[in-house]
Amino acid sequence: MSDRTPAGQFFDAAIDLLRRVRDEEADAIEAAGTLLADTVENGGRLFAFGAGHSSLAAQDVVYRAGGLAVMNLLAVPGVVGVDVVPATLGSALERVDGLASAVLDSSPLRAGDALVIISLSGRNALPVEMAVNARALGVRVIGVTSVAYAAETRSRHSSGTFLKDHCDIVLDSKIAVGDAELTLDTVPAPFAPASTVVTSALMQAMTATAATALADRGIEPPLLRSGNVDGGHDWNGRVLDRYGDRIFYRH
């Protein structure tokens, strides 16, 4: 029997979305994971970027037990989660033209690297400009976004385009415009967003694909272990030293 509690409805909605991205985005996930594996094999570095709550899924794959040690966070001050006060400033910064250029100009990104850009709406200036400028540098770009926004909203970038229009590979999170899965007659606004659950799952699925692809090629993937299991710190120390020239969260 279906659980009609709000919690049960949310879990059902999240599970349905996870099933959709598993089935409908399988080819894109495979392509994205392969791109990451190619980059690692060829000596490139990996970066992830997201603004606001989209940054949470980016942070989840950086310095992560079971994750790739060479995945780095491309941080933009003021938009990393809700780290700025007032939080509304973070939303405003996403709309500022030129901010992505300033960040990339001072970042270690270079030709041959790969950048995962996460933006639920994909409509703001920051993620669009980040993708455009990164590709101009010779960086391969993977976009994780909800394609529905491009059909139902207007771009806030001067080009009128969305993140999805400037990526080598796009992963569609299938999240409905507004990012809230539940409605109730007695509640004036929709609630219970699922974008973080789904986007994080897409990121981990992509990472798992990359690690497996490397292993299939006879290359040991640079994976980190939990520091809370015996031997974990020693293992991680060896991996971090071996790939130190591709890791930027240690300095």
Characterize this entry briefly.
InterPro entries: RpiR-like_SIS, SIS_dom, SIS_dom_sf, SIS_GmhA/DiaA_subfam, UPF0309. The chain has 251 residues and is an alpha/beta fold.
General description of the model:
- The protein has 251 residues and is an alpha/beta fold.
- 42% of the residues lie in helices and 12% in strands.
- The protein has helices at 6-24, 26-41, 54-59, 87-93, 99-105, 125-136, 148-152, 195-216, 232-242; strands at residues 46-50, 71-73, 114-118, 140-145, 169-172, 182-184, 187-191.
- It has a five-stranded parallel sheet with strand order 2-1-3-4-5, sandwiched between helices.
- Helix 1 (6-24) packs parallel to helix 8 (195-216), helix 2 (26-41) packs across helix 8 (195-216) and helix 5 runs parallel beside helix 6.
- The mean pLDDT is 94.
How do the helices and strands line up, and which of them pair or pack?
Blueprint: H1 6-24, H2 26-41, E1 46-50, H3 54-59, E2 71-73, H4 87-93, H5 99-105, E3 114-118, H6 125-136, E4 140-145, H7 148-152, E5 169-172, E6 182-184, E7 187-191, H8 195-216, H9 232-242
Helix pairs in contact: 1-8, 2-8, 5-6
Distance between the termini: 53 Å
Number of alpha- plus pi-helical segments:
9
- Contiguous uncertain segments of 5+ residues: none
Shape: globular
Looking across the biggest beta sheet, what order are the strands in?
A: 2-1-3-4-5
| Beta-strand share of residues | 5-15%
Calculate Rg over CA atoms: 18 Å
Number of strands: 7
Helix content range = 40-55%
User: Could you tell me the mean pLDDT?
Assistant: 94
By secondary-structure content and strand pairing, the structural class works out as alpha/beta
Order of helices and strands: HHEHEHHEHEHEEEHH
Largest sheet: 5 strands, parallel
